[in-house]
Amino acid sequence: MKRILTAYVIGAIFGLGISLSGMANPAKVLNFFDVAGTWDPSLAFVMGAALLVTFFGYRYVLGHNAGPILDKEFLVPTARDLDGKLLGGSALFGIGWGLSGFCPGGAIPALGTGQTDVILFVAAMIAGILAARMLMTFRRPPAPTQA
Amino acid sequence: METEFTPIASAIGGGLIGASAVLLMLTLGRIMGATGILAGLLTPASRADFLWRAAVVAGMITGPVIYLGLTGGFPAVQVPISTPQMLIGGFIVGMGVTYGSGCTSGHGVCGMARLSPRSIAATLTFMFACGVTVYATRHLIGA
Predict the structure, then answer these.
(1) Cα A127 to the chain's mean position, in Å?
(2) ipTM of the assembly?
(3) What is the pLDDT of residue A4?
(4) Where are the domains of chain A?
């Protein structure tokens, strides 16, 4: 119960941060990238502040504790190699982000406003996640079959 | 569609996003990545795994309601594009973040803060691709 309540409060801090920052607003997000048009540099301040807090916060948390308070261990990704899947996927995400103005972390909190466009985006995004998973499964080398 | 430059609100919002990432690492030892948390919710490893993910997502959705309580209005969600473009964009985002193992929060904030080479490369890639797409849709096609 403590874990669930903690997770909920942390999610709410994230959602409030997204709401204040403007990341839940596709018009604002798209304007950040539209340097040649209606440019709005606000999102640089979102990214800058978030990075600053996380950089020093992570250093403190990961440097001064053997593990998290409510779980067994810190689950931090260890992979370091760059591959086509990472870069191709990220390029694809960038295209979708540029078309819609929503990234997952902007859209999920925006669901709280109840606007239809957000619900449609999240539904399409979940369909995309499931489609990519199916494609990944199909493209795995097939197990040797017996004749 | 023009939007107002809001450096202070955006920096406070960014600070809260960072604070949530630090708190999630401190308490549950997890990366605050919207993609990873949502993807794990679709196919949870266990009941406990499902519950914390569902709680984070529920909290995220509460964000605009807290904002409403503080300011008297919901945060602006202005959509300057057509519904088909939103749906196509959403589908592509879903595919991209799955292949790319993360999005703006996971790679852009948490991974960059850890100076992960994968996250730095991913972030530079999606920021560039997003910029090119916005330029193409706003200034080349139908300009």
Answers:
(1) 16
(2) 0.97
(3) 97
(4) 2-138
